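Session log. Operator J.P. requested a structure for one protein chain; no other inputs attached. Running the standard single-chain path with C-alpha coordinate output.
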Amino acid sequence: MTSPRKHLVKDFNHFITCYVCKGYLIKPTTVTECLHTFCKSCIVQHFEDSNDCPKCGIQVHETNPREMLRLDNTLEEIIFKLVPGLREKEQQQEIEFWRSRKWKENGEGTLSVLVYP
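Structure written below.
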Protein backbone atom coordinates (compact mmCIF):
# COMPACT_ATOMS: atom_id res chain seq x y z
CA MET A 1 0.00 0.00 0.00
CA THR A 2 1.42 3.36 -0.98
CA SER A 3 1.01 6.44 1.14
CA PRO A 4 -0.69 9.47 -0.37
CA ARG A 5 1.71 11.87 -2.03
CA LYS A 6 1.97 15.22 -0.30
CA HIS A 7 2.22 18.46 -2.23
CA LEU A 8 3.15 21.89 -1.01
CA VAL A 9 1.35 25.04 -2.12
CA LYS A 10 4.58 26.16 -3.79
CA ASP A 11 4.24 23.15 -6.12
CA PHE A 12 1.13 24.83 -7.56
CA ASN A 13 2.25 28.47 -7.46
CA HIS A 14 2.86 28.54 -11.22
CA PHE A 15 -0.84 27.80 -11.74
CA ILE A 16 -2.32 30.04 -9.05
CA THR A 17 -0.26 33.24 -9.30
CA CYS A 18 -0.84 36.25 -11.50
CA TYR A 19 1.66 36.92 -14.29
CA VAL A 20 1.18 40.69 -13.79
CA CYS A 21 1.42 41.21 -10.00
CA LYS A 22 3.07 37.88 -9.09
CA GLY A 23 0.64 37.42 -6.17
CA TYR A 24 -2.03 34.76 -5.74
CA LEU A 25 -4.86 35.16 -8.25
CA ILE A 26 -7.62 37.29 -6.72
CA LYS A 27 -10.91 37.05 -8.61
CA PRO A 28 -9.18 34.94 -11.32
CA THR A 29 -10.21 36.23 -14.73
CA THR A 30 -9.44 34.40 -17.95
CA VAL A 31 -8.86 35.99 -21.36
CA THR A 32 -11.05 33.84 -23.63
CA GLU A 33 -8.84 34.40 -26.69
CA CYS A 34 -5.72 32.75 -25.24
CA LEU A 35 -6.95 31.24 -21.94
CA HIS A 36 -4.40 33.07 -19.79
CA THR A 37 -5.66 33.97 -16.32
CA PHE A 38 -4.88 37.04 -14.22
CA CYS A 39 -6.26 38.84 -11.17
CA LYS A 40 -9.36 40.71 -12.29
CA SER A 41 -7.98 44.06 -11.17
CA CYS A 42 -4.62 43.40 -12.88
CA ILE A 43 -6.08 42.52 -16.28
CA VAL A 44 -8.70 45.28 -16.23
CA GLN A 45 -6.02 47.83 -15.37
CA HIS A 46 -3.71 46.41 -18.07
CA PHE A 47 -6.46 46.80 -20.67
CA GLU A 48 -6.64 50.52 -19.88
CA ASP A 49 -3.32 50.87 -21.73
CA SER A 50 -3.21 47.90 -24.11
CA ASN A 51 -5.45 45.49 -26.01
CA ASP A 52 -2.83 42.74 -25.88
CA CYS A 53 -2.54 39.83 -23.44
CA PRO A 54 0.28 40.70 -21.02
CA LYS A 55 1.55 37.10 -21.07
CA CYS A 56 1.50 36.06 -24.74
CA GLY A 57 1.04 39.39 -26.52
CA ILE A 58 -1.87 38.44 -28.79
CA GLN A 59 -4.40 41.16 -29.53
CA VAL A 60 -7.41 40.29 -27.41
CA HIS A 61 -9.96 42.60 -29.02
CA GLU A 62 -9.54 45.53 -31.34
CA THR A 63 -11.67 48.02 -29.40
CA ASN A 64 -12.88 46.52 -26.11
CA PRO A 65 -10.73 43.67 -24.77
CA ARG A 66 -12.77 43.54 -21.54
CA GLU A 67 -15.54 41.84 -23.53
CA MET A 68 -13.24 38.83 -23.77
CA LEU A 69 -12.86 38.28 -20.00
CA ARG A 70 -14.53 35.59 -17.90
CA LEU A 71 -14.36 35.14 -14.13
CA ASP A 72 -13.18 31.68 -13.05
CA ASN A 73 -15.03 30.97 -9.81
CA THR A 74 -13.88 27.34 -9.72
CA LEU A 75 -10.22 28.35 -9.81
CA GLU A 76 -10.92 30.95 -7.11
CA GLU A 77 -12.34 28.24 -4.82
CA ILE A 78 -9.34 25.98 -5.48
CA ILE A 79 -6.93 28.81 -4.60
CA PHE A 80 -8.83 29.59 -1.39
CA LYS A 81 -8.61 25.89 -0.42
CA LEU A 82 -4.89 25.70 -1.21
CA VAL A 83 -3.88 28.94 0.56
CA PRO A 84 -5.05 29.04 4.18
CA GLY A 85 -6.39 32.42 5.30
CA LEU A 86 -6.38 34.01 1.84
CA ARG A 87 -10.20 34.27 1.59
CA GLU A 88 -10.44 35.92 4.99
CA LYS A 89 -7.58 38.31 4.22
CA GLU A 90 -9.21 39.39 0.95
CA GLN A 91 -12.62 39.81 2.60
CA GLN A 92 -11.07 41.99 5.31
CA GLN A 93 -9.22 44.11 2.74
CA GLU A 94 -12.45 44.60 0.80
CA ILE A 95 -14.29 45.70 3.96
CA GLU A 96 -11.51 48.15 4.79
CA PHE A 97 -11.55 49.47 1.21
CA TRP A 98 -15.27 50.21 1.33
CA ARG A 99 -15.12 51.60 4.87
CA SER A 100 -12.51 54.09 3.72
CA ARG A 101 -14.99 55.21 1.09
CA LYS A 102 -17.87 55.87 3.53
CA TRP A 103 -19.55 52.45 3.37
CA LYS A 104 -20.41 50.43 6.46
CA GLU A 105 -21.29 46.88 7.46
CA ASN A 106 -25.03 46.47 7.99
CA GLY A 107 -24.95 43.73 10.64
CA GLU A 108 -25.64 40.98 8.10
CA GLY A 109 -22.02 40.82 6.97
CA THR A 110 -22.69 42.93 3.89
CA LEU A 111 -21.82 46.53 3.17
CA SER A 112 -24.23 49.44 2.82
CA VAL A 113 -23.79 53.02 1.69
CA LEU A 114 -23.75 55.56 4.48
CA VAL A 115 -26.48 58.10 3.84
CA TYR A 116 -26.03 61.54 5.31
CA PRO A 117 -29.10 63.72 6.06
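Operator note: The two ends are 70 Å apart (CA to CA).
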